[in-house]
Design goal:
Two copies of one chain form a homodimer. The first copy, chain A, is α/β, with parallel strands linked by helices. Chain A is built from 23 helices and 26 strands. In chain A, helix 6 packs across helix 21 and helix 16 runs parallel beside helix 18. Chains A, B: Its EC number is 6.3.4.3.
């Protein structure tokens, strides 16, 4: 008998319960080996084969670096991190999904250390949070030999072909293969598009059929007589519990002007920002104004990110409010009868996706909700599974979108509230470039050359701009978690500049502040950061939420505005005031708050840099994502689907039919 | 050294070329074993472990049957049919993609026998072509022990949640797991949605940017000055070859009223049939009327189905015509600069998907173009790979959508023309139900009980209706291929009825006609059909196309109308006449013809059953799918996106969060 085979049999014995298999002779040897087998699958010290980087100068483009590294077969990485083969579903050679059964298998296992990466208020170019997240795990895993997982968001495919390019980190700190990461991945976003648009189609079709049929006809069609009997589907029975009258059962009576559910596409299609639908003669004149959002703005994406199990997702899929009836009742996806189908469409998307960094350490890529009208954080499930897999001495590094005033605040107040997880360390990414902008440097515009203030030493601007970093450190401290500042160095930064940022950060109360160069050097460039994070994870921490859920809606908004943004007060405009009343009446008043505010300023005005003061935050409107579980106040107008510029990125993207290589992604 | 390991090393040796590895001692034993290894991977007689069916009466629902069978691990099936592990990309445990490198590996291998399944003119309920396709391969593979592959279309997900339900065959003749088949599969349709809509967004964004910018500004943005130099992307260089003037290069000058490219969604959303786009203030008043089609109606789906390699797909992606310029030039996807990105988005979709039947035989599921405005056949690549894998004594059974006048005619004149493959046998599916309808039986409506004529013996109606079968047999004979009629039996059919159909079929010139009961009995119910097909495949055949490509457009349409539909003549309405002239001038006159006609009658009027005569076929308009490679004349108005009924299927669909089972799909 070959050893591998024997071990497999050992595993089966254990699964069935050793003492209950009739006729099985359990020798001491069997028990010992079975024990060894299980130990082998208990999270302990991993033995990961890391990939050596062959660093080039100047640093090549992201796609060239990504392609120059041959990724490990993903099933091998899965084994290395302690996943059983039955728990892994391969999607090609470089991606895999992890089944949720692992949550149960590892439930008794203590969690690892939980690190969230956030940033100061960024320039429109971004300051390298994703790159730092990946650089940090490459350092912890490949250089410090610790168990570590990165948990990152799946990027929207739309911007990949528009102006932004890829989002898999950058330079020598990337998730690979970057083209798989940036394109379809395993289809999760596509599943959301399908699910979201099924709801949208169901809403308009329902309004149409209700408009053209009597109550009785509707009822006869909804619950057809078959063999002398009417049979309700389980979803209809759920509804029957609340409505005993045919009219209320058969007629949802949706107010067309109240529909908040939009169609979505994962494409930068500006011409769908506002449209009129229903203009074909077959729809008999029932036209209405509507819009498309980008898929990652769908509430279903937020549900995916915040759910904790299949059962929980099924419940959230039923609770999503899509409109209000003419009598003021919230209309849900369950009312439309579509909640089960949505869960079926999302049954694979709920499983986190395993990929790897350039240095061969594991990454979960899972969920990527919009960071303004949603909470902008990757999934709770990926974090939870990763925390079990790394074990008590290991680390999970997760990323929160936008600056600390947005992504981190929502990470703590929304994501950690739903997950019950408690973070050990905040890594705050800062760049000399962004700090100079906050100090009064000229405007930074994507696609335009940087003004000279940003490429020459300027300690004065820099020191002034550190105010923003100080405020964001303070923001993290509101939650009682130690902060490590990671100064993401660019080649134009001077020694004096980098030193100044570090000393200002420590003076502002950071646990530590270190320079890193992971973009140019991979994990080796973030070892100092890794060591600081490891030390900080042992420091005392005293996590607390910023507000109590039971407070009135306006009070919760005010607390965020005053404590995090530095506002004097908030102003509820009439529509927002109306929604406060409506949602309170409908029973949604105790949901957490997800602010939809610009990420380019601590205030609501994108051009106010540094630490704006003396402002009142205007709340234009409030919307509810009841299934995801938050209210989102709109501060100003949020664009929810980007457009294509005159020369989109796609001009450079092509496939070499010979080698099957993707060119031109960046 | 374990045997498996040794064999693997043997394989590596061969891959590298035995004689060229320095220092390698090639013993006779090595060579012999290497040869044995390669022989093991040459297509020969497969040794497939078939799955035994446990037949229940009455036959349970499709999803219950599908779930009652545990599918083989798909990597095992892949090995059984001679695929090398490097050629297979797993997508979970029950689906895999096959890499195109296999085409080269097996290029010297003779093809198997090629069988196309088509049908008589159906009722709106469908007559079981898919079920017969699967039943036939289960018979040939699991009962007659032959190498056999089924090649079927991937169904659109939209109708799964609307009125139609699943499309994986039915009863005991199904592709499993049916929920995987009917839902996302491996994401090919989602990739098409993304690619198609990127083109649509690019068209409107380009028209918008051209409307708001001078030639010079456009040029500067399209080819920005960087470091004193302008760099053209390879796609732009392709365009430079044809346009030396800045204006023509920078300004496509699309006539907005000429745009034929529509947006798509894989959702039954009737409210998107006609819409107005661009109504947000950010689009500055550039609104226009547009529409959404269902994704399978996208030209990109037709390209996927008709392409023969990655290189060929890249070329087709460049040739798709989306509009006409104000000066009458065709505007292509290459002109928009998006052709490379489309190929990148479709790089995985081009690989056929491997699944299995209920009895464990292999199935390729690949591409599913609309059967009216496109050609309604599964992919050429899947057929080609399957024909190599089964080897010269094996069979590939592929299905053509709709009745023989539509799907089969397009299979021969379009698909076989592009593939160069020559079919051996036509299987024509007939049902007593549909033949009675053609004989003058009452209207058959989906969702309504069948009138008594259909559930009681009625030889008179049946005999009269056999005219339609006779005509469709004749249609197949136009192409010189032997026809086997498969009479798909229902439990209400009588012996006398089934016998009558068989004898009428033989009298009409069918090579053979047999009764089958694969829906109720799986492959065992189609063994007689399998034997007939095997015999017919050895019969003389003399394949020929119906028309010559070099004929004028109108002549090609007339030949189809007269020979296949039985029309007296055609009538080109003004718009069609205009398009004949335009396309002839633009150089597209020699493309094959893809008729967009109702499938419910041989004529253009759906309610004319049997064999209509004495009619003139009106051609309302003609469109071009230049990338896919056909012109499609529109006979009447084709609905291109279905709607949701008052009570869509989704009411019954749900996921059991405990077992993760899908319920309610049918």
């Amino acid at each position: 008998m070959v050893k591998g085979e024997w071990i497999k049999k050992g595993a089966v014995v254990i699964d069935c319960g050793i003492n209950h298999i009739p006729g099985l002779i359990v020798s001491e040897n069997t028990v010992l080996s079975a024990k060894r087998f299980l130990e082998g699958h208990q999270p302990g010290k991993w033995n990961i084969s890391c990939t050596k980087l062959n660093l080039q100068k100047p640093v090549p483009s992201d796609i060239v670096i990504s392609r120059s590294c041959v990724p490990k077969p993903i099933d091998r990485l899965a084994r290395e991190v302690g996943l059983l083969s039955d728990e892994v579903e391969l999607y090609g050679k470089t991606k895999a999904k992890v089944q949720l059964s692992i949550v149960k298998r590892l439930q008794a296992q203590p969690d690892g250390k939980y690190v969230v990466v956030t940033g100061i208020t960024p320039t429109p170019l971004g300051e390298g949070k994703s790159t730092t997240t990946i650089g940090l795990v490459q350092a912890l895993g490949a250089h410090m030999n610790l168990n570590v997982f990165a948990c990152v968001r799946q990027p929207s495919q739309g911007p990949t072909f528009g102006i932004k390019g890829g989002a898999a980190g950058g330079g020598y700190s990337q998730v690979i293969p970057m083209e798989e990461f940036n394109l379809h991945l395993t289809g999760d976003i596509h599943a959301i598009t399908a699910a979201n648009n099924l709801v949208a189609a169901a809403i308009d079709a329902r309004m149409f059929h209700e408009s053209t049929q009597s109550d009785k006809a509707l009822y006869n069609r909804l619950v057809p007589l078959s063999g002398g009997q009417r049979k309700f589907s389980p979803i209809q029975i759920n509804r029957l519990r609340i409505s005993v009258f045919i009219t209320r059962f058969a007629r949802l009576d949706i107010d067309p002007s109240s529909v908040t559910w939009q169609r979505v596409l994962d494409t930068n299609d500006r011409f769908l920002r506002k449209i009129t639908i229903g203009q074909s003669p077959t729809e008999k004149g029932y036209t209405r104004e509507a819009q498309f959002d980008i898929t990652v703005a769908s509430e279903i994406m937020a549900v995916l990110a915040l759910t904790s199990s299949l059962e929980d997702m099924r419940q959230r899929m039923a609770k999503m409010v899509v409109a209000t009836s003419r009598s003021g009742q919230p209309i849900t996806t369950e009312d439309l009868g579509v909640s089960g189908a949505l869960t079926v469409l999302m049954k694979d998307a709920i499983k986190p996706n395993l990929m790897q960094t350039l240095e061969g350490t594991p990454v979960f890529v899972h969920a990527g909700p919009f960071a303004n009208i949603a909470h902008g954080n990757s999934s709770i499930l990926a974090d939870k599974i990763a925390l079990k897999l790394v074990g008590p001495e290991g680390f999970v590094v997760t990323e929160a979108g936008f600056g600390a005033d947005i992504g981190m605040e929502k990470f703590f107040n929304i994501k950690c509230r739903y997950s019950g997880l408690r973070p050990h360390v905040v890594v705050l990414v800062a760049t000399v470039r962004a700090l100079k902008m906050h100090g009064g440097g000229p405007t930074v515009t994507a696609g335009m050359p940087l003004p000279k203030e940003y490429v020459e030493e300027n300690l004065e601007l820099l020191e002034k701009g550190c105010s923003n970093m100080r405020k964001q450190i303070e923001n993290a401290q509101h939650f009682g978690v130690p902060v490590v500042v990671a100064v993401n160095g660019f080649k134009t930064d001077t020694e004096a500049e980098l030193d100044l940022v570090c000393s200002m950060a420590k003076a502002a109360g950071a646990y530590d502040a270190v320079r890193c160069s992971h973009w140019a050097e991979g994990g080796a460039g973030a070892v100092a950061l890794g060591q600081a994070v490891q030390r900080a994870s042992g420091a005392p921490s005293n996590f607390k939420f910023l507000y109590d859920l039971e407070l009135p809606i306006a009070d919760k908004i005010r607390i965020i505005a005053q404590k995090i943004y530095g506002a004097d007060d908030i102003e509820l405009l009439p529509e927002a005031q109306h929604k406060v009343e409506l949602y309170t009446k409908q029973g949604f008043g105790n949901l957490p708050i997800c602010m939809a505010k610009t990420h380019l300023s601590l205030s609501h005005e994108a051009d106010k840099k540094g630490v704006p003061t003396g402002f009142v935050l205007p709340i234009r409107d409030i919307r509810a994502s009841v299934g995801a579980g938050f209210l989102f106040p709109l501060v100003g107008t949020m664009p929810t689907i980007p457009g294509l510029p005159t020369r989109p990125c796609f001009y450079d993207i092509d496939l070499d039919p010979e080698t099957e290589q993707v060119n031109g992604l960046f």
